[in-house]
């Protein structure tokens, strides 16, 4: 007996938008909680698609770049009302977080940053965010680094990033090397070419002084920064951090401390974590900068579903693509680890009392390693801010 595939109820475009807007307002707790919420409502209760199809779809989203929960919403919106439905579903899901982050960034830039009374509070928060990133690197690495070669590729990417090699060299090289691992001569040749390119290009990027003001060109650069992050979010939203940081902090448009504050705020809002890019864009370039970087960050998530809708579920069956993406993901782990070290060093230089900083960091690491739940990150940020006010690191 053949079981018919379930289908979504008939909804107007406005009803569809409101449905996913509601999901956006409730999207606390990161991608796991967000995906579980959507699955509970649309798969288990309302039967828009079957659980088996949902699992296949989730497998595809996990190997593609972009925030998985947002991509799922876009795809499910398309299942209900075609491409315009996908667009409205994606906009509805991201809109609450975008608006709330704009408000938070405005308060931060115009009322909080530069206030001496808040300096130690936010330093405590920044130390805790480093612990959250440590946990993210450990969790992502556990899922991605499945064999010795992937570990070696991640380590090489870490070293290359610390030496100033442009990000695209370790990413492309790692993807190709892992794809051709069964042919050692080819893999070795790719490695040699990558070393040569690294030697020729490291340190070649122009250095932009902190005094440079954001201009129209800066807005374009912020869009590219977001697009780069959106295309390279393999393994979770934390993988966008290095690329957005390079194109904002690296240009002198905001400090490492402010960047970490944005990551902390993103973890407290109902939104995909990549919404931290909106904060960075606002601090760097006002509303235009925030809009530009957000469009760039979310554009791939819309595009992959809306352009390749009919072919997405077939992607998961392609083992050759899996090998390339596996190598790229390993390199991204190395890039994140290198960025963690760079952020950690920049934060340590601002700590006046090392013992207090160590106490906050160790406590934050213990919390993120030993506890789970959607409220862990917000509670940790609040607790770290209080610890910073009391201990004054």
Defining key terms:
single chain; 393 residues; mainly alpha; 2 domains; 75% helix; globular
Topology of this structure?
Blueprint: H1 13-25, H2 30-45, H3 51-63, H4 68-112, H5 116-144, H6 148-162, H7 168-179, H8 184-201, H9 216-231, H10 241-248, H11 256-266, H12 276-307, H13 312-315, H14 319-348, H15 354-370, H16 376-391
Helix pairs in contact: 1-4, 2-4, 4-12, 5-11, 5-14, 5-15, 5-16, 6-7, 6-14, 7-8, 7-14, 9-10, 9-12, 11-12, 15-16
Structure overview:
This protein is mainly α. It has two domains: 13-91, no CATH class; 97-391, no CATH class. The chain has helices at 13-25, 30-45, 51-63, 68-112, 116-144, 148-162, 168-179, 184-201, 216-231, 241-248, 256-266, 276-307, 312-315, 319-348, 354-370, 376-391. Residues 204-217 have low confidence and may be disordered.
In short:
With 393 residues, this protein is an all-alpha fold. It contains 16 helices and no strands. It has helices at residues 13-25, 30-45, 51-63, 68-112, 116-144, 148-162, 168-179, 184-201, 216-231, 241-248, 256-266, 276-307, 312-315, 319-348, 354-370, 376-391.
């Amino acid at each position: 007996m053949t079981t018919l595939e379930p289908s979504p109820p008939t909804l107007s475009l406005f009803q569809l938008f409101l449905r996913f807007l509601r999901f956006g307002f409730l999207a606390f707790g990161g991608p796991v909680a967000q995906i579980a919420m959507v699955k509970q409502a649309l798969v288990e209760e309302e039967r828009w698609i079957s659980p088996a199809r949902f699992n296949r779809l989730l497998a595809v989203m996990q190997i593609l770049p972009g925030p998985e929960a947002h991509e799922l919403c876009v795809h499910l919106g398309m299942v209900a009302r075609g491409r315009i439905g996908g667009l409205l579903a994606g906009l509805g899901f991201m809109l609450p977080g975008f608006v709330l982050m704009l408000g938070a960034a405005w308060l931060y830039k115009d009322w909080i940053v530069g206030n001496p009374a808040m300096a130690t509070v936010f330093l405590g928060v920044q130390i805790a965010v480093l612990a959250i990133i440590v946990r993210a690197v450990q969790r992502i690495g556990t899922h991605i680094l499945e064999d010795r070669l992937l570990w070696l590729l991640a380590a090489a990417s870490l070293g290359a990033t610390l030496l100033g090699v442009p990000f695209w060299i370790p990413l492309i090289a790692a993807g190709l090397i892992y794809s051709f691992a069964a042919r050692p001569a080819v893999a070795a040749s790719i490695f040699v070419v990558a070393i040569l390119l690294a030697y020729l290009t490291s340190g070649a990027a122009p250095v932009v002084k902190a005094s440079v003001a954001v201009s129209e060109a800066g807005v374009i650069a912020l869009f590219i920064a977001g697009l780069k992050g959106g295309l390279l979010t393999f393994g979770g939203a934390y993988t966008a951090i290095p690329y957005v940081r390079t194109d904002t902090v690296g240009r002198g448009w905001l400090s490492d401390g402010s960047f970490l504050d944005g990551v902390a705020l993103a973890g407290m809002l109902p939104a995909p974590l990549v919404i931290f890019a909106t904060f960075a864009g606002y601090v760097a370039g006002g509303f235009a900068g925030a809009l530009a970087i957000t469009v760039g960050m979310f554009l791939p998530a819309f595009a992959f579903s809306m352009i390749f809708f009919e072919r997405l579920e077939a992607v998961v069956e392609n083992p050759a693509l899996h090998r390339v993406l596996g190598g790229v993901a390993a390199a991204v782990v190395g890039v994140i680890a290198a960025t963690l070290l760079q952020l950690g060093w920049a934060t340590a230089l601002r700590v006046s009392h090392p013992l207090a900083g160590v106490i906050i960091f160790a406590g934050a690491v213990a919390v993120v390693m030993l506890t789970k739940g959607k409220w862990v990150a917000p509670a940790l940020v609040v607790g770290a801010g209080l610890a910073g006010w009391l201990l004054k690191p």
